[in-house]
Amino acid sequence: MSRPQVLLTRRIPAKALARIEEMCDVEFLDGGSLTAAELAAKVPGKHGLVTMFIDPVDAAVLAAATDLKVVATVAVGYNNIDMTAAKARGIVVTNTPDVLTEATADLTMAILLGMTRRIVEGDRLVRKGGWKGFSFDFMLGSDLRGKQMGIVGLGRIGRAVAARATAFGMRIAYTRGRPEPGDEAEAMPLDRLLATSDVVSLHCPLTPDTKHMIDQPALARMKRSAYLLNASRGPIVDEAALAWALENRLIAGAGLDVYEDEPKVHPGLLNLDNVVLVPHLGSATIETRTAMADLAAQNVVAVLSGKPPLTPVG
User: Fold this and answer.
1) How high is the pLDDT of residue 86?
2) Of 45, 52, 114, 115, whose Cβ has the fewest other Cβ atoms within 10 Å?
């Protein structure tokens, strides 16, 4: 009996790969970013597809994949996959929730401290020889204790960020999502959250409703002393509007781990000292990326074995 055929758009850790290879034949695509047309040319005859969040699994790709049973994305978000087309063709779509929650929350706080304590800005200054020695009022940042963090999207990652922020003495407000029993978080409309928060941290999925949620009017509602964090999906923030707000000091600073058109970054952000730019490292720890790949592999094996997926979406 022939073995199932699985296509991987990137190489994954050996443990996860071995799990798939035990019952399937595997083909890799290691050519970097793929177009939908390039992916569509490779999927005929494949029964499983393991993708990253940047791979465009659109209706045309799924139409070409006449034997496809499962698409396993190694990510939490799945906005790169045409869920309507997948459902119409009976294709199971899975993601990797939970396993990246703690790493992403850790990075969110790292970016926050990098902004509010001007760590990245100070590092650049020291490296170029601009530091002239201690001065009492030099490069003053902002405390977190007593400040309000407004979380847009109080899901798994949002709650993990809230726990960390609370440990730093911050109070939590949120919109979209719900707290766990015992959480001390105040629900409020987005407009009020923007107007009252000292830090606005984005942790919601990218949908038509959330694309450019943070635009010029939204940024203009924020405090001039406030900071914006985005560790969710790039297009939630209008980068041109953010560059405008930062240049005009309408907000104090921003920290981004994701971008509208990765790996491109809006040129207006590149030379600003009051923005921290991180190359999409939210889940980038050895332990977390290994766990993500392994969960995706388990989903593929389960579906191709005729069993229910572990973490289906849609």
Assistant:
1) 98
2) 45
